[in-house]
Amino acid sequence: MQTAAGVGSLQLRPLFGGALSAVIPYNITDVSEVREIPDNQEVFAHPHTDQSLIVELLEYQAQVADQDAARYHFEDIAGSNEAQEPGAFQVGNVVALPKGEVSLSECSSAWMLNGTQCVSKFNEDARNTVAIHLGLFRLPQFSTDILITLNDPQSISPDSSSASAAETHRDPWTVEDFQSTLKSLTLHNPGLFG
């Protein structure tokens, strides 16, 4: 892999067979090498922490206004994580990413959301507090929303299967790494969208 210019801990990585690419932290485990991943996702795990980075191709939600779409997807993730009860999730802020700062020129708008969710892993009873950094790229011309999510555990229950990873928080991915991933996302083959 090639290292991105000027960024020692990140590398340019092809996604979805090279149809997309982005600068991704170098110290990753491609989860598809460990278990089956849906075709609309690329999932990466940090080798020493319980962080994960997910790139997803989702159906464009035309009924949701651009400024509300990141929150819509965040709440959908909360539903998937069974974090819907009061206080189980919170949106910190949602900001528009200026088009001049993102490489994905095909998007109609780009957004970043920061929030938290209290989730259990593998349907365990133990709940962990996870900071969720979400990037959303809207591509209505391809009927697609591209979602990039960094899951960053903040508080791990001692009863969680993630408790052992909490002790080895070496070289964690940063919000700056995540922002580099968002800003560098590039489309190479629109045939990806059908």
Describe this structure in words.
The protein contains three helices and eleven strands; from the N terminus they run ββββββαββββααβ. It has 194 residues and is mostly beta strands. The chain starts with a strand and ends in a 7-residue tail after the last strand. Residues 1-8 have low confidence and may be disordered.
Give a nutshell description of this structure.
It contains 3 helices and 11 strands. It is mostly beta strands and 194 residues long. The protein starts with a strand and ends in a 7-residue tail after the last strand.
How many angstroms separate the termini?
A: 28 Å
Summarize model confidence as the mean pLDDT. Answer: 84
Q: What is the overall silhouette?
A: globular
Report on the biggest sheet.
7 strands, antiparallel
Radius of gyration computed on alpha carbons = 16 Å
Which class do the helix and strand fractions yield?
mainly beta
Please give the count of helices: 3
Question: Which strand order does the major sheet show?
Answer: 4-5-6-10-9-8-7
Share of helix among residues? 10-25%
What labels describe this entry?
single chain; seven-stranded antiparallel β-sheet; four-stranded antiparallel β-sheet; 3 helices; 15% helix; disordered N terminus
